[in-house]
Design a protein that fits this description.
The chain has 371 residues and is α/β, with parallel strands linked by helices. The protein is 44% helix and 13% strand. The chain contains 17 helices and 11 strands. The strands form 3 sheets. The chain has a 5-stranded parallel sheet with strand order 9-8-7-10-11, sandwiched between helices. The longest helix has 17 residues. About 8% of the residues have low confidence.
């Protein structure tokens, strides 16, 4: 048996009553793996038995492990999870932590979600309640609910997609759902407006450009082999030079006079500034360089403890997450959008809710269906 599974099984046996464990198992029955080994690993915890409690509310804490999920990859899944959990009579609460912390049975220590979003209660507040289910990490199976059918026509398609056809109708529907679960912190919207939104006049026509250069041949060809295996399951978007030509075509066709740019690499920003000058608006944040892409430690080749310790030493995950949110807020407020397939682009489309004048989704050579 997997060592982690053994620890979890021991924890359940010694600390959780059989009745409550079976209730949790029933609650998530349509999402549990058939394989017995995996079922023990993806078990569900119940905080405590409170038959005498006067509290009527029941809470379910959903755990998304970092870096497998970053802020918008988790947000897309959470929309469906939120609907499912709420339909079962529970109040959903999301906890995004480093996988290493979850494996130490820590909750609410450093929740990335709460950097950018409000919740009905925080994780720390939920843990003080009398009736709490805590889902383990891993996200096995699907969140089966009507939202999947309404958006995607299939009950097991629990993704928001980057769609071109009928996009306005699609994202209008999506926006109805995210309003309940994506409670963006008002102070972040205010900060975006004070720093960047103020540069846009009422008469301006702004083209949002959402790049995802790590999902392109430019970056792929410099990756570690193990990382390439992972990125084979992600979109393969046009390189920066090809994308620039697409932007030049549409900025003329749509008559835009400003660009709001979201980019990972510093070289991409410099290329756009060289081409479009002061008409480019961008969030002032740390960016990677394509030149040292291969020389940096390869996250996919490290274990969860090494990843956690590396980021504790070398990165400001809070600032990175918050400034990325500011970019997505900016993209969602543009008049037009050109976007690579990524969770950030999908988030901007969802937040905009079908109000763009027009959009163009960059082609994906890998044809990944979940995006």
């Amino acid at each position: 048996m997997n060592p982690v599974a053994k620890v979890i099984k021991t924890f359940i046996t010694e600390h959780i009553s059989y009745r409550l464990y079976k209730e949790a198992e029933t609650f998530f029955r349509d999402r549990l793996m058939k394989d017995k080994e995996k079922r023990s690993f993806y078990a569900y915890f119940v905080k405590k038995d409170t038959q005498k409690s006067k509290e009527k509310e029941r809470y379910c804490i959903l755990r998304f492990r970092v870096p497998t999920y970053m802020i918008f990859a988790a947000a897309i899944q959470y929309v469906f999870a939120y609907e499912y959990i709420e339909s079962k009579g529970y109040i959903p609460v999301i906890d995004m932590e480093w996988e290493y912390l979850f494996r130490q049975f820590q909750l609410g220590k450093d929740n990335l979600w709460e950097y950018c979003f409000n919740q009905r209660v925080t994780v720390e507040e939920a843990l003080k309640k009398d009736y709490v289910l805590v889902e383990t990490f891993g996200m096995p199976g699907t969140w089966l609910n009507q939202m999947c059918v309404e958006l995607n026509g299939k009950k097991d398609d629990h993704y928001i997609h980057a769609v071109q056809d009928n996009w306005r109708e699609y994202y209008t529907k999506v926006n109805k759902y995210i309003k309940k679960s994506w409670l963006i912190k008002p102070e972040l919207v205010k900060e975006y407006q004070q720093k960047y939104g103020c540069k846009i006049k009422e008469e301006d026509l702004v083209l949002g450009v959402a790049l995802r250069e790590s999902f392109s041949a430019d970056a792929y060809n410099k990756m570690h082999e193990e990382s390439q295996k992972v990125y084979d399951n992600h979109p393969m978007c046009p390189g920066i030079i090809e994308t620039l030509e697409i932007v030049k075509k549409y900025i003329k066709q749509w008559g835009c006079n400003k660009i709001f740019l979201s980019t990972i690499f510093q070289e991409s920003l410099e290329l756009f500034l060289q081409e479009f000058g002061d008409s480019v608006i961008y969030v002032d944040r740390d960016r990677n360089s394509l030149n040292d892409y291969k020389t940096k430690p390869d996250g996919w080749a490290m274990n969860n403890k090494e990843i956690y310790e590396y980021h504790q030493r070398n990165s400001d995950i809070r600032n990175m997450t918050v400034t990325y949110m500011e970019e997505i807020i900016g993209l969602s407020k543009c008049d037009y959008l050109i976007a690579a397939k990524s969770s950030g682009s999908i988030a901007a489309l969802a937040m905009n809710g079908g109000k763009y004048k027009d959009i163009y989704i960059l082609p994906d050579k890998n044809n990944i269906e979940r995006y």
